[in-house]
C-alpha cells in the first residue's frame, strides 16, 4: 500500500516553490541579492490544502494515493503532506502497523533531524500491535497525544502481559508526559492494580477510558450473553470489593497521581455481580424459556436493585471527584438507565427482544457532571446524565 518514490526528494534549498523570474529559476546560487524576492507560498495555506485533501481521503483507506502527488513536489511539501497523513493512524491489524513502522523508518532516514515518528499524534488499533515481540517500541511515537487500544482479542491470561509490554514501551519515551487521552476498551479486568500502573506511567493524562462491559454479547440470545460473561470482570462488587465504599477508596488512591485528569470513563457495572445473571434467569422463565433477553429497566424484579446501584454510582463518583480535583466528568456503565428506549419495539407483554432493543444497550451509561466551588475547588454538586 505504502510505497515511497525516491525521485520525490529534491536537494536541500532547491524546491519547486522557488520564485521564477522570466522563466529563470532564482535560487540561493543567484548573484542577485534577492532575499526579499524569494516569496514562498504560506505554509499555513499549503497545510490547509493538504489537510482538506486528507479529510476526503483519510489514512489508511486512501492507500497513499491521495497524497502521492504532494510528496513528489518538493522536500518541504513531502514533509508537510506526510506529517499530516500520519497524524491520525487508524490500524486494524498488525501487518498494517508494521507497514507504517517501516515507512516512517524510511522517512526518518530521509529527513534526518526531524523525527518522522513524531508525526503521529493519535494511534488507534487492536492491542496485539503491542503484543508481539516483533513489534517495535510503541513509545517511539514521541508526540503521541491520543492512544486507543482494543483488548477484544485478549483474555484474562494475556491481559497483564500486554499491559506490561505497553507500559514498558513508554518507560523512556517523552510521550508518557505528553499523552492526553488513553482509552483501553474491552479489557477483561479493570481493577486498582491496572489504574495504579497507568497513573504511574501517564500522570498527565486528561482523559482516561477503561472498560469491560463492551465485551458483553447483547445482540443475540441469553446463551450468547451468558457465554460472554465468563471471562470478564464486569461487576467487581462484591467478589473483588466487598462494597462500594471499599471500591471507591481503592480506585481513588490508585488514580490520585493523575493530577490533570478531566474525564474518566470506567466501563464497569456497580450493581452486584449476580444481578445480571439473575436477571437472565428470571426473565427467561417469565418468557417461558424462549431464550430472549428482556430489558433490565422494565424488570420489576430487578427494580429493587435500582436505588442501591444508583447510590453506589453516586458515592464512588463523589469519592473520585474529591480525590481528583481536576475532574469534570465521570462516566460509568449501568443497568439502570433512566431512559426507556425501545418501548415501541416491545411485545404485548412489555418485553423487549434483543434483536430490536439490544437489552443492555451497551453502553448504557450514566455521566456525572461535576460542578465545583470557585476557589476551593470542592465539589458543589454532581448532576447525573443518562445516555
Ligand atoms: Zn445467541
Ligand atoms: Zn430482572
UniProtKB/TrEMBL annotation:
* Source domain of life: Eukaryota
- What protein is this chain from? Uncharacterized protein
Amino acid at each position: 500500500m505504502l510505497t515511497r518514490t525516491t525521485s520525490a526528494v529534491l536537494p536541500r534549498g532547491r524546491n519547486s516553490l522557488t520564485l521564477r523570474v522570466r522563466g529563470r529559476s532564482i535560487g540561493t546560487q543567484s548573484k542577485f541579492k534577492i532575499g526579499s524576492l524569494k516569496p514562498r507560498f504560506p505554509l499555513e495555506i499549503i497545510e490547509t490544502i493538504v489537510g482538506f485533501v486528507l479529510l476526503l481521503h483519510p489514512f489508511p483507506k486512501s492507500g497513499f494515493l491521495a497524497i502521492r502527488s504532494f510528496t513528489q513536489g518538493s522536500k518541504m511539501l513531502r514533509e508537510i503532506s506526510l506529517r499530516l497523513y500520519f497524524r491520525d493512524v487508524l490500524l486494524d491489524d498488525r501487518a498494517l502497523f508494521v507497514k507504517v513502522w517501516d515507512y516512517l523508518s524510511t522517512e526518518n532516514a530521509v529527513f534526518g533531524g526531524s523525527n518522522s515518528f513524531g508525526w503521529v499524534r493519535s494511534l488507534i488499533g487492536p492491542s496485539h500491535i503491542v503484543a508481539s515481540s516483533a513489534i517495535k517500541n510503541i513509545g517511539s511515537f514521541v508526540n503521541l497525544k491520543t492512544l486507543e487500544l482494543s483488548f477484544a482479542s485478549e483474555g484474562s491470561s494475556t491481559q497483564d502481559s500486554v499491559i506490561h509490554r505497553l507500559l514498558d514501551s513508554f518507560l523512556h519515551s517523552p510521550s508518557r508526559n505528553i499523552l492526553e487521552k488513553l482509552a483501553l476498551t474491552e479489557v477483561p479486568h479493570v481493577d486498582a492494580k491496572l489504574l495504579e500502573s497507568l497513573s504511574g506511567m501517564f500522570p498527565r493524562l486528561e482523559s482516561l477510558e477503561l472498560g469491560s462491559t463492551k465485551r458483553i454479547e447483547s445482540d443475540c440470545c441469553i446463551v450468547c450473553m451468558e457465554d460472554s460473561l465468563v471471562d470478564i470482570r464486569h461487576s467487581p462488587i462484591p467478589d473483588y470489593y466487598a462494597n462500594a465504599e471499599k471500591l471507591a477508596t481503592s480506585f481513588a488512591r490508585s488514580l490520585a497521581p493523575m493530577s490533570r485528569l478531566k474525564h474518566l470513563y470506567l466501563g464497569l457495572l456497580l450493581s452486584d455481580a449476580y444481578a445480571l445473571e439473575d436477571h437472565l434467569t428470571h426473565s427467561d422463565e417469565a418468557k417461558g424459556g424462549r431464550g430472549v433477553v428482556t430489558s433490565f429497566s422494565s424488570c420489576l424484579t430487578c427494580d429493587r436493585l435500582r436505588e442501591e446501584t444508583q447510590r453506589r454510582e453516586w458515592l464512588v463518583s463523589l469519592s473520585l471527584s474529591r480525590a481528583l480535583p481536576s475532574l469534570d466528568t465521570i462516566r460509568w456503565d449501568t443497568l439502570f438507565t433512566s431512559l426507556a428506549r425501545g418501548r415501541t419495539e416491545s411485545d404485548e407483554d412489555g418485553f423487549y427482544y434483543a434483536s430490536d432493543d439490544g437489552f443492555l444497550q451497551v453502553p448504557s451509561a450514566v455521566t456525572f457532571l461535576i460542578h465545583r466551588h470557585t476557589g476551593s475547588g470542592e465539589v458543589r454538586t454532581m448532576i447525573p446524565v443518562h445516555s
